[in-house]
Every structure is written in structure tokens, then in C-alpha cells.
């Protein structure tokens, strides 16, 4: 997705999985469009648009590289949907501008609506004065032998001018039976833009800020996934915005 130009591509791979096939450019029809990611859900691809306060619903249009907009899911005005996750028929949306996490049923296509059933602020308590907040990343983990229930982890980004000496916090939410806030974990990082789970049961979380000099940290899930602890840190790596775990 192209954040500034309001368009994007869904590019198919060739039969050898080593090359790419042509794809059509998808433009999102909104006065201000800032598409931020693409997430496959069944036969659709969902695209949260921070500028339009919509989640676009895309479907394939005759060939793998040809996609069209079939509709959208409206989001609260001014909330700025940035990243999303789905679980069953539930849509979880992290809103950058309002720093909120919401849950709602995925409505019928193409332009069905549904009520937001849960909405939580992700901000840590007692923030510094003049802090400027922008929600960052969202990760959803399913239950496993070591972690008996699913959780959602979202990152805060305080862009200043006054920063918290504890760094930005990751907010943890339980998913079942309904969305519920669990706790904040302070990371020492500045503007968490990259974080990703890894390990056989997603027991480790690597994270970094896009600013500052706190480097890259490795956290371990504890208390069944309801908490995180920092187990390693590398300050020689300045800043990172994304990670990929290789298995």
C-alpha cells in the first residue's frame, strides 16, 4: 500500500514462486486516503485507510493480479484506522489518531454495517505533559499449550515533545470472552513501529522504536501471555521498523 498517494497493488507470484506477475493499481476514492496495510480475510482483502476512516473491502476481479473495491466498513470519524486483525467473524482495529482499540463483527459484504461492541484507550496512565500519541502496531496470538488463551498486543507511540523516561508501552488485551484490558508493559523504546512474535509458540516478541537510541529488545511472554518481560537488548542497532522471523 502507498500511504501518501492513496493507492496500492496486490502482486501475485509466478508459478515458480520466484518471480512476480503484473498487477493493476488500486486507487482508493476518498478526498484524503492513507492506506496503511492489507490483510486477507477469506476471499477478501481488507485495507484500513487512516485518511478516509474506512476499511476497504477488495475482491479478486477475474485474475490474481486484478482486484477491485467492492465496499468498505465505516470507522469512527477522525479515528484514523491504522492496523487491523481478524479472528473468526470479529474485526479488531487499532486507530492511530484516537489511540483506541475497537472490536466489531465483520458486517456482510459489500457495504454492511455493524456496531462497535468494545472500544478501549491504549494510552498508559499518567502520561507526560504535552505528549503526542499515535497508536502503532497490533499483534494477535492464538491459544497454545503454553499460552491457554488468546491475547492482543498493541504499541503506543509518543512523538513528544516530552517523552516518558520509561519509554513507550505495549498494551495487552485479553480476547475471550470479550475484549478486556490486562496491563501496560514499558519497553524503554521510543515510538514502537516494529514488533513481531516468534518461537515455536510465539513466546518471544522482538521490538524496536523508529526514534531514539534504545535499540532492539527481545521480550518473553510470561504469566500465560498476560505479561511481558525484557530478556535481551541490543543498543548497537539504532532503529528498526519491521522484523521477519525465519523458521
Low-confidence stretches: none
The helix/strand order is EEEEEEEEEEEEEEEEEE
From the alpha carbons, calculate the radius of gyration and give it in angstroms: 18 Å
Largest sheet descriptor = 4 strands, antiparallel
DSSP strand tally:
18
Determine the strand fraction and express it as a percent band.
35-45%
Overall SS class: mainly beta
Q: Strand order within the widest sheet?
A: 3-4-5-6
End-to-end CA span: 26 Å
What is the arithmetic mean of pLDDT? 95
Oligomer: single chain
Give an overview in words.
This protein is mostly beta strands and 247 residues long. It has no helices and 18 strands. The chain has strands at 7-8, 26-27, 39-41, 44-49, 54-63, 66-74, 81-87, 90-95, 100-105, 116-121, 138-141, 151-155, 169-174, 180-186, 190-198, 204-211, 216-222, 227-234. A four-stranded antiparallel sheet has the order 3-4-5-6, with no helix packed on it. A four-stranded antiparallel sheet has the order 7-8-9-10, with no helix packed on it. It starts with 6 loop residues before the first strand and ends in a 13-residue tail after the last strand.
Amino acid at each position: 500500500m502507498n500511504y501518501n498517494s492513496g493507492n496500492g497493488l496486490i502482486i501475485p507470484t509466478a508459478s515458480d514462486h520466484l518471480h512476480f506477475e503484473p498487477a493493476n493499481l488500486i486507487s482508493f476514492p476518498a478526498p484524503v486516503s492513507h492506506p496503511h496495510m492489507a490483510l486477507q480475510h477469506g476471499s477478501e482483502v481488507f485495507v484500513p485507510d487512516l485518511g478516509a476512516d474506512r476499511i476497504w473491502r477488495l475482491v479478486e476481479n477475474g485474475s490474481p493480479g486484478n482486484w477491485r473495491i467492492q465496499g468498505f466498513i465505516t470507522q469512527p470519524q477522525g479515528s484514523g484506522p491504522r492496523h487491523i486483525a481478524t479472528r473468526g467473524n470479529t474485526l479488531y482495529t487499532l486507530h492511530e489518531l484516537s489511540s483506541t482499540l475497537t472490536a466489531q463483527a465483520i458486517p456482510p459484504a459489500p457495504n454492511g454495517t455493524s456496531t462497535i461492541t468494545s472500544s478501549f484507550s491504549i494510552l498508559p496512565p499518567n502520561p507526560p505533559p504535552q505528549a503526542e500519541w499515535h497508536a502503532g502496531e497490533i499483534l494477535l496470538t492464538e491459544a497454545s499449550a503454553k499460552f491457554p488463551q488468546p491475547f492482543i498486543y498493541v504499541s503506543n507511540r509518543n512523538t513528544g515533545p516530552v517523552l516518558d523516561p520509561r519509554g513507550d508501552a505495549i498494551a495487552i488485551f485479553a480476547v475471550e470472552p470479550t475484549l478486556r484490558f490486562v496491563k501496560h508493559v514499558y519497553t524503554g523504546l521510543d515510538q514502537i513501529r516494529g514488533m513481531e512474535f516468534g518461537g515455536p509458540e510465539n513466546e518471544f516478541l522482538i521490538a524496536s522504536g523508529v526514534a531514539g537510541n534504545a535499540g532492539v529488545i527481545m521480550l518473553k511472554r510470561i504469566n500465560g501471555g498476560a505479561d511481558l518481560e525484557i530478556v535481551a537488548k541490543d543498543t548497537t542497532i539504532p532503529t528498526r521498523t519491521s522484523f521477519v522471523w525465519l523458521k
